[in-house]
Amino acid sequence: MTSPAGPQGPPDFENARTRRQKARAAGLDPNHWYAALESKELRPGQSQEVLFMGRPIAVFRGEDGAVRAVENRCAHRHLKLTEGQVVGCKLVCAYHGWAYDGEGRAHIPHDLFGHKAPDLRIGTVPVKERYGLIFIFPGDPERATLRDIPAIPELEGNEPWPHAIVRFDCPGHHSMLIENVSDFTHGFLHRKFQPFEGMELLRCEEVGDRVELEYRSKIAAGRFQDVFINRSESACDHMLACYDYPYHWSNTDDRIKHFLFVLPEAPDRNRHFFIFYVRTDTIRLPLIGPRLPRRLVHLMMQATRYTTLKPLLSQDVWVIRHEQEAWEQHWDKPAPELSPVVRAFQNLAIRKWEEHLARSPKAAAA
Ligand code: FES
Ligand SMILES: [Fe+2]
User: Fold this and answer.
1) Cα separation of the two ends of the chain
2) Are 237 and 244 in contact (CB under 8 A)?
């Protein structure tokens, strides 16, 4: 990924000198599954463009309900296929009607003027749906079967934990977001909501492709949230968090958990999806207590999206936008970093990107 700010802007990965410059220039290894859309955003017969590090991908749902993804470029004159429409299970280019199936093969509907039907194909992108999200595998399609979407057993089966998905389009480099979510020193930003109280970092450890963290902190400490948390069996004050490359997750007392999926759209923007999920008996209602039906708690989680999660996390998106602006202007100035968490996250992101470049010389040249 090249600099978003032109020749005077921050250096690319090869020319970056400091750890922070490298972390801000690093991409994410495409050979993982990345959440790109919520399932509900793509009805049968619809298509949408998504970007992975600047690469346009057309994701479409056929009339059969299955999702497919292809390069967003007609093999004829390279128009964006998402400007066309889905017909049956094919994505049809708006100009001459060439129709693309899930294998990327072009079906030409008009006169061939005596030519044999050409065997034209565009690139395809493996795609899967799980947990209410559509995931793409933007790397080498042959490696897609070697990796899977991270397992979230709590969201599977007939009685999934009550949960809520929150999506953001965030104008900042993906590393800023990943650092933000596990760096509890920014509680000041959220002082109105108090999502955590009394933070103490107990452990920060780099283990293989993960950075594991352990925090002592009262979660959901704000006055409004606190009345809905049942702390009779556990205080919900011990959190494991992890940068589990390229994902992020947390687990508080095996009761309150989240997964974060980040899509690096471009050097200066990302799309991300949080899934928050809670064990049903973690939630209580004043006067009624904690024994609530799972469906009711699920509805309460949906309400929480609007009352707490979106307003709270919007503060992070807002601040990351400003961090991105500040980065483009002041990238060469020192930025004293006190938190070992941020340093560890940056080290992991840089190492993984170096490993990817070493395996893919084409990505290094881009
Ligand atoms: S440009 Fe797509 S069919 Fe001609
Ligand atoms: Fe935050």
Assistant:
1) 7
2) no
pLDDT of residue 257: 96
Q: What is the crossing angle of helices 310-330 and 174-182, to 10°?
A: 130
Distance 100 CA to ligand 1 centre (A): 11
- Per residue in 254-270, is it b (16+ CB within 10 Å) or e — as a string? ebbbbbbbbbbbbbbbb
pLDDT, position 6: 55
Ligand 1 atom at minimal distance to the Cα of residue 75: 2
User: Nearest-CA neighbor of 154 among 64, 288, 54, 251?
Assistant: 251
Phi, psi of 50 (to 5 degrees): -125, 155
Question: Is the Cβ atom of 95 under 6 angstroms away from ligand 1?
Answer: yes
Of the candidates 231, 259, 230, the residue with the CA atom closest to the CA atom of residue 163: 259
- CATH no. for 153-353: 3.90.380.10
Ligand 1 within 6 A of CB of 147: no
Predicted pLDDT at 363: 63
Q: In degrees rounded to 5, what are phi and psi of residue 198?
A: 70, 55
Say if ligand 1 is within 6 A of residue 77 CB: yes
Residue nearest to atom 4 of ligand 1 (CA): 96
Task: Give the residue carrying structure tokens 């070697």.
Answer: 146
Domain ranges of the chain: 34-146, 153-353
> Which ligand number lies closest to the CA of residue 122?
1
Mean pLDDT by 10 residues, the chain (366 residues): 63 96 98 98 98 98 98 98 98 98 97 96 98 98 96 96 98 97 89 82 96 89 78 84 97 95 98 97 87 94 93 97 98 94 97 96 60
Q: Specify the pLDDT at position 235.
A: 78
The residue nearest atom 1 of ligand 1, judged by CA position, is: 77
Q: Which of 173, 192, 222, 218 is nearest to 21 (CA)?
A: 173
Gap from CA of 179 to ligand 2 centroid (Å): 10
CATH of the domain spanning 34-146, picked from 3.40.50.1240, 2.102.10.10, 2.60.120.380, 1.10.1200.10: 2.102.10.10
Say what the pLDDT of residue 2 is.
47
